[in-house]
Amino acid sequence: MNSFVRRYQIILLSIIFCLFSLNMALSEKKTVGGAVFIEKTISKIFSPFQMAFLGIYNITSGTWEGYVALVGLRDDFTLQQKRVLALVEENNRLKEVDHENQRLREILSFKEELSSNAVGAKILAFNLSGWTKTIKLNKGATDGIVEDMPVISPTGVIGRIISTTSGSSTALLITDPRSNIDVIVQRTRVRGVAEGNGQNALTLKYIRDLDDVKKGDKIITAGFAGIFPSGLVVGEITRTEKSGDNFFKRIEIKPNAALKKLEEVLIGPVTNKEE
Amino acid sequence: MKDSLIFLIISIVYLTFKSTILPTVPTPDIPLIIVFFMAYNGASIKGVILSFIIGYLDDVLNGSIIGTTSFTLVFIYAATHVLSQRMHFSNVSTKVFGCAVAALIKAVLSFIIWRSVSHEVSFFTQVLPTVFITALFAPFIISIFERYPSLRGGDKSEGGIL
Fold first, then answer.
1. Do B120 and A197 touch (CB under 8 A)?
2. Beta bridge partners of A125
3. How far is Cα A193 from Cα A180, in angstroms, rounded to an integer?
4. Which structural domain range is residue B29 located in?
């Protein structure tokens, strides 16, 4: 027996780890004791590194964009070039500040319009590879963020919080296949569920063939599940066709929010002023 | 131990880099290449454990279904170990082929898990660019690892022969 185990120890250990991982994946990790604590710890450890990487990248790309157009002039304008480079750098910095101010003003006016206790947050990291679509935010439990809080922007719904640490949180984007939102078609008030398709769009499910839904219709949150308030824009229908079962339609939604271009978002309980 | 630490650091840097600077660009799956390299260059118990840890970190940092990547990487490690007893990944074409097949297996297993937990996902649009780029970069990355004898760790006799 001992010689068998020693001979095949790698295979046996691999089988054990595979079964353990499979159990976590198929039970979606909730039942594994201590796992949530481990994940929160790992996430907390990595946040400063992600912030540092992002900071270095922003400085480098800003400087590169400021200098690349001037390379060809280096030989002709040496003294003026130094002055111009310094001015360009300052100009880029001021432009960035101006853009940030504009975005923050939009978020602030949107927040006031919603009459909310929402918290503004910056995006630290994107996870858009494969089927997973999540973002990491720089606000966490110490800022009052809890799981299932909505994440929104002035242009539309972004997602919901799925995990938090003390100083950061992870949000599931609406394009992730694990995301399901109760929605209605704004024009006809037909109700359905918008599910992420793992790419950059959503699928509108449970719309019957005889329901009045067409390309261009706006999709808004229904407010039934208690996560998102009603009336927030989710997206627009870009494609509608009959499905193979001749009962439900196959409908694709393009999100209204430019998910890949986000920099700041709002997190938190919101109520429409109209309610 | 030193080789495991180096591979772990490389994976961590890659995962951090990918989530901050290149989130939308298809990049070579470096953790997968590391696992493939470790497995055919002398599999060991610490290799299995490292594969699990790297996969777990990937899932946690990505916000993916926890257990998906750790399962696929450990599976690929074991499968590559078994295959390396029968064929040698000694030239560029076998390494490219091996990495491409490993990337495809990883994608198929991940797809099965996602579908098993009732999430409808599309296979080809998400998978093929990563498989192609991983296979393309694999020889280059593996040749870097092979330059350092300390990274060619593991005892070929450890863990048995099938």
1. yes
2. A136
3. 6
4. 2-152
Q: B161 in a domain, yes or no?
A: no
Does residue B36 lie in a domain region? Answer: yes
- For residue A12, give the amino acid letter: L
- How many Cβ atoms sit within 10 Å of the Cβ of residue B61? 24
Number of domains in chain B: 1
Question: Is residue B159 situated within a structural domain?
Answer: no
Tally of CB atoms within 10 A around B4: 19
CA dihedral A72, A73, A74, A80 (to 10 degrees): -160
> Which of B74, B108, B131 to mutate: most A Cβ within 10 Å?
B74
User: Hey, what are A187's tokens?
Assistant: 């024009």
Tell me how far apart the alpha carbons of residues A86 and A94 are, in angstroms, rounded to a whole number. 12
Does some domain include residue B34? Answer: yes
Q: What is the CATH number of the domain that holds B129?
A: 1.10.1760
Q: Are B139 and B96 in contact (CB under 8 A)?
A: yes
Contacts of B129 (CB under 8 A, 6+ apart): B26
- Of A144-148, B31-35, B122-126, the poorest mean pLDDT is in B122-126
Quick check: A131 and B121 CB within 8 A?
yes
Does the model's ipTM exceed the 0.90 cut? Answer: no
Calpha distance A241→A219 (Å, rounded): 17
CA–CA gap between residue B62 and residue A28 (Å, rounded): 14
What is the dihedral sign for C-alpha A94, A95, A96, A102? Answer: positive
Substitution target in B50, B65, B105 with the highest count of A β-carbons within 10 Å is: B65
Q: Residue A183: beta bridge partners?
A: A192, A221
Amino acid type, B41 = N
Q: Do A198 and B121 touch (CB under 8 A)?
A: yes
Our CA-based measurement puts residue A107 at a distance from the nearest CA of chain B, in whole angstroms, of 23
pTM recorded for the entire structure: 0.76
Mean pLDDT of B5-30: 85
Report the amino acid identity of residue A198.
Answer: G
Instruction: Tell me if A10 and B158 make a contact (CB, 8 A cut-off).
Output: yes
Contacts of A132 in chain B (CB under 8 A): 62-65
Tell me, rounded to whole angstroms, the distance of Cα B128 from its chain centroid. 16
User: Over the stretch A105-151, which tens digit does the pLDDT of each residue have?
Assistant: 777 776 666 556 778 899 988 888 778 899 999 999 998 898 889 99
CB within 8 Å: B20 and A50: yes
- Kindly report the number of other CB atoms within 10 A of residue A156's CB atom: 21
